[in-house]
Amino acid sequence: MTPSLRFWIPILLLLSIRPAFAQPHSHSSSTPVSFPDIPGYLSLTTDLHQHTVFSDGSVWPDIRVMEALREGLDVISLTEHLEYQPHAEDIPHPDRNRSYQIALEEAKAHDLIIVHGSEITRSSPVGHNNAVFITDANALLDTDPKVPFSVARKQGAFIFWNHPAWYAQQPQGNPVLSDFQKERISKGELHGIEVINTTDYSQEALQIALDENLTIMGTSDIHGLIDWDYIDHGKHRPLTVVFAKDRSSSAVKEALMERRTVAVYNSLWVGRAEWLVPFLKASIVVTQASYIPETQILKLVLENRTSSDLLFENIMEYTFYSSSPVFEIPAGQSYTLQVKTLEIKDAIVLSLRALGAYMAPGVHPEITWDIPVE
Ligand SMILES: [Zn+2]
Ligand SMILES: [Zn+2]
Q1: Which residues 6+ apart lie within 8 Å of 160 measured at CB?
Q2: Does residue 37 sit in helix, strand or coil?
Q3: Which domain holds residue 183?
Q4: Residue 331, domain CATH
Q5: Taking every annotated instance into account, which residue ranges of this chain make up the domain Polymerase/histidinol phosphatase N-terminal (predicted)?
Q6: Which of 170, 172, 268, 341 has its CA 20 to 30 A from that of 299?
């Protein structure tokens, strides 16, 4: 090593180390999610399936909190695998509540609800299941797969079946409801099912949710970074929109237990008609309804008040003057329809089929709006 390098290397090293306080972390993003409330309920955005270095994720728990704040979420849970600990040599014998505690500390000064959770991780037919709203993850550890379910239930948990169609456990890519799961459902130890996990949507999982009266869920199951997996691709992570009576942890749990959810992955919305219909209805607001002068053509300006691009098909008796009968209203934007009503009306009923939304496999909701004409 030359004397000059010997001089420069320590200085360069010093320059490369910046104290943490020199980097104010940003909790804002250009792409926060936003959805309207529905009558009687708040629409809270949740992602209740995420990993950190405390299981097989690649980030410290505080990063999950910052990602959620940047994306504008209301509720998250860090659900570390109980039985899969690939970082055990670096983080030996971790307290299974630690991930939650660190996230809670980071979220203290912010408006983000942290839910205590864990992923019960077994091979098929038990599969992977998240228990959220638990009080002690350590108490869920047991060799008998029935124990974590019964203990979580006693702790007051909401429990859901993760990625039921995962091809590593279901090579045909279709979920199979096992006797083990049927028993958990009958004992009140399994309440929900993911129909959307990462970028995957399972119609068969939706059918199981409807048949077994389970809560419909969508989650990111993030292991790396939300920005790299979703935001950089122009997407938001999958979410479960929960219709809660207030903005509290207990209200979120009550809503999940009562199945008041819609799983949202960008333009794909999946939920029971009971919640999907009012949610879509609140998402589109007609901001203008007036006739083009000297015509019977009604101009309707539709505003999309969500962060999802929404696809619709005209199902009215009236046809359009300008638009295709199938049209998309981009997230946060307006779209103008010109409806040929054939005569001047005081009011019309706008009726559209939501082609990106499913209330059963292959079944789209039909939404109506009563529009007074200006
Ligand atoms: Zn899993
Ligand atoms: Zn997972």
Answers
A1: 48, 129, 130, 132, 190, 191, 192, 193, 194, 214, 215, 217
A2: coil
A3: 27-266
A4: 2.60.40
A5: 46-124
A6: 268
The ligand with the least distance to the CA atom of 219 is: 2
CA of 129 to the centre of ligand 2 (A): 8
DSSP state string for 81-119: ESS--TTTTTS-S--TTHHHHHHHHHHTTSS-EEEEEEE
Which residues place a Cβ less than 5 A from the ion ligand 1? Answer: 128, 162
Regarding whether 159 and 37 lie in a shared domain, the answer is: yes
CA of 163 to the centre of ligand 1 (A): 7
Q: What is the pLDDT of residues 241-269, one digit of tens each?
A: 999 999 999 999 999 999 999 999 999 99
Percent of the chain with pLDDT over 90: 86
For 346-370, how does the pLDDT look when each residue is reduced to its tens digit (9 = 90+)?
Answer: 999 999 999 999 999 999 999 999 9
Bridge-based pairing of strands 326-329 and 310-314 is antiparallel
Domain endpoint, select from 240, 266, 292: 266
Q: Which two tokens stand for residue 207?
A: 């059918």
Alpha helices (H) in 187-298, listed in sequence order: 203-212, 226-229, 249-257, 273-283
